[in-house]
C-alpha cells in the first residue's frame, strides 16, 4: 500500500480519539505527522500484528524488544510526547470493552488489521519472562525472578552502572557531579543514617555487587553480611571483597532474607530490594528484619514508591516491567510502606524523598548504555539492550513527572525504655 504512514497515522488517531504527537515512518519509507518531531519507526507489518494481537503495553513492548518498532530522534522527547497516550491516560480512560462499542473505533481496528496482513504475530521475544505455574514470592519464584533481572552478565551491568556498581538511586550534590561521586555519597548517607560504628554488625539485604558492604566495612569498620539471590552478583561481590582485603569483615551469601537466622544485628540496610518482596509478603519482610535487629537497632529501607490510587483494588502491574524487567515486582505508596513497618514493630523516625535524584541517576545510566551501544548488545543481546534502554529512559521521565518516587525510611527497633538513640536534630547526617 502506498503511503502506509498516512494511513497508519489516521487509523491510530481514530483509535485513540486524539492527535498523534509524533511522526510515523512506515516500512515503505513514507512519513506522516508533525514536522520536526521524533519519528516512531514501524519497520514492518509484523509490528502491527504484535500490537493488534496483544493491545496495550505488552504488545508495544514485544514490538520494541524485537526491533519491529523503533524511535528516530531523541528518546526522551518521544517518550514524553507519547506518555499522555500510553502511561498517563489516568483512571478515567475508557476500557477496551467501552471502546469496542464505538463504531469509529471498530472501523479503525478493522483498518489496522487489514493493513497488518492476515498472518498471526511471531512468538514473543526470548527476553520475555516465561511464566511458571505456582504462587508469587515463594523462595523458588523469587530466585527465578531475581535471576532474570540480575544474571544477565556482570560486564553488561559494569558498562551501564560504571565503576561504583551501585544499582540504585545516587545522591547528587548537583546535576554536574559525577555518577561515581553521587553513588559514594549515597552509600555514605545510608551509613550515617544507620550511625555505623566500628565493630558493629550490619546486614545488607539485597547486597547486589557488594558496594554497600564494602563501603561500610572499609569506611566505618563494621562487620557485614551481604545477602543476594543472584549467583552472578555474589561471585562478583566476593571477588571485590577479596580485592579490597576485607574478607575478614565482609561475608557475601546467596540467601533469602527469610532464611537469615544469625541475628541480632546492630543495623540493616535494604537498598532497592523491597520492591521485589511483593504486597502479600511485605509485612513478613518487615517482621523478619525487625526480629534480626537488636533493641535500638536501625533499618534503612530505600524503596521506590508509586502514587496511591482512588481505588487501590484497581492497581495493575506494569505489563512491560513485569514481562521484561522486574518479574513479580510490586510498588506500593510510601504510606503503605510506613504502615507495614510500624505494624511489624518499628518506630519510623525519618522519611526522605530522593525522587529527583533517581531521575538524574537513570539519565546517566542511559547515557552510559548509549555511549557503548554496540558493545552492550554484544554483552547481552540486542533485545535485552533495548529493554534496558527503554525502561531506564521511561523511568527517568516517570520520576521527573512525579508518577513514581523513591524514599529512604529510617526505622528503629525502639527498646522498651523508649530511647531510640536518635539525635534531637536527626538530620545531622546531611
TrEMBL record:
In this chain the Polyketide synthase-like methyltransferase domain maps to 156-411
Q: Which domain of life is it from?
A: Bacteria
What are the top taxonomic ranks of the organism?
A: Bacteria, Bacillati, Actinomycetota, Actinomycetes, Kitasatosporales
SMART domains from the entry?
PKS_MT (SM00828)
Q: From the UniProt record, which GO molecular function terms apply?
A: methyltransferase activity
Q: Which residues cross the membrane?
A: none
> Record's family?
Belongs to the CFA/CMAS family.
Q: Does the keyword Transferase apply?
A: yes
State the name under which the record lists this protein.
Answer: Cyclopropane-fatty-acyl-phospholipid synthase
Gene Ontology biological process = lipid biosynthetic process; methylation
List the SUPFAM superfamilies hit by this protein, alphabetically: S-adenosyl-L-methionine-dependent methyltransferases
Q: Which UniProt keywords apply?
A: Lipid metabolism, Methyltransferase, S-adenosyl-L-methionine, Transferase
Gene3D superfamilies, alphabetically?
Vaccinia Virus protein VP39
Kindly give the InterPro entries that the UniProt entry links to this protein.
Answer: CFA/CMAS, CMAS, MeTfrase_dom, SAM-dependent_MTases_sf
Keyword Methyltransferase part of the UniProt annotation: yes
**Entry-linked PANTHER family:** CYCLOPROPANE-FATTY-ACYL-PHOSPHOLIPID SYNTHASE (PTHR43667)
Task: Give the originating organism.
Answer: Streptomyces griseoaurantiacus M045
Amino acid at each position: 500500500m502506498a503511503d502506509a504512514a498516512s494511513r497508519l497515522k489516521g487509523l491510530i488517531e481514530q483509535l485513540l480519539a486524539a492527535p498523534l504527537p509524533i511522526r510515523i515512518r512506515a516500512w515503505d519509507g513514507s512519513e506522516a505527522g508533525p514536522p520536526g518531531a521524533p519519528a516512531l519507526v514501524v519497520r514492518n507489518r509484523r509490528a502491527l500484528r504484535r500490537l493488534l494481537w496483544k493491545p496495550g503495553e505488552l504488545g508495544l513492548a514485544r514490538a520494541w524488544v524485537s526491533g519491529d518498532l523503533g524511535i528516530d530522534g531523541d528518546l526522551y522527547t518521544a517518550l514524553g510526547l507519547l506518555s499522555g497516550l500510553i502511561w498517563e491516560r489516568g483512571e478515567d480512560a475508557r476500557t477496551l470493552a467501552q471502546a469496542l462499542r464505538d463504531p469509529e473505533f471498530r472501523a479503525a481496528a478493522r483498518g489496522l488489521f487489514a493493513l497488518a496482513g492476515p498472518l498471526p504475530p511471531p512468538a514473543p521475544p526470548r527476553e520475555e519472562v516465561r511464566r511458571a505455574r505456582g504462587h508469587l514470592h515463594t523462595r523458588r519464584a523469587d530466585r527465578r525472578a531475581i535471576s532474570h533481572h540480575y544474571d544477565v552478565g556482570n560486564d553488561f551491568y559494569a558498562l551501564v552502572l560504571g565503576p561504583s556498581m551501585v544499582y540504585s538511586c545516587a545522591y547528587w550534590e548537583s546535576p554536574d557531579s559525577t555518577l561515581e561521586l553521587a553513588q559514594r555519597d549515597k552509600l555514605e548517607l545510608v551509613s550515617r543514617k544507620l550511625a555505623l560504628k566500628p565493630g558493629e554488625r550490619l546486614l545488607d539485604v539485597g547486597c547486589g555487587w557488594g558496594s554497600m558492604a564494602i563501603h561500610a566495612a572499609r569506611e566505618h569498620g563494621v562487620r557485614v553480611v551481604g545477602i543476594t539471590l543472584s549467583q552472578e552478583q555474589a561471585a562478583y561481590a566476593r571477588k571485590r571483597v577479596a580485592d579490597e582485603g576485607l574478607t575478614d569483615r565482609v561475608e557475601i551469601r546467596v540467601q533469602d532474607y527469610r532464611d537469615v537466622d544469625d541475628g541480632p544485628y546492630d543495623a540493616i540496610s535494604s537498598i532497592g530490594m523491597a520492591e521485589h518482596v511483593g504486597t502479600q509478603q511485605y509485612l513478613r519482610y518487615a517482621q523478619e528484619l525487625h526480629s534480626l535487629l537488636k533493641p535500638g537497632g536501625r533499618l534503612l529501607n530505600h524503596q521506590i514508591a508509586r502514587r496511591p490510587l482512588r481505588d487501590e483494588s484497581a492497581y495493575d502491574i506494569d505489563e512491560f516491567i513485569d514481562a521484561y524487567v522486574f518479574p513479580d515486582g510490586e510498588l506500593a505508596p510510601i504510606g503503605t510502606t510506613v504502615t507495614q513497618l510500624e505494624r511489624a514493630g518499628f518506630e519510623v523516625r525519618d522519611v526522605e524523598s530522593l525522587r529527583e535524584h533517581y531521575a538524574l541517576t537513570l539519565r546517566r545510566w542511559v547515557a552510559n548504555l548509549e555511549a557503548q551501544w554496540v558493545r552492550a548488545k554484544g554483552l547481552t543481546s540486542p533485545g535485552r539492550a533495548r529493554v534496558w534502554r527503554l525502561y531506564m529512559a521511561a523511568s527517568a521521565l516517570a520520576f521527573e513527572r512525579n508518577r513514581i518516587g523513591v524514599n529512604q525510611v529510617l526505622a528503629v527497633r525502639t527498646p522498651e525504655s523508649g530511647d531510640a538513640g536518635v539525635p534531637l536534630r536527626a538530620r545531622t547526617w546531611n
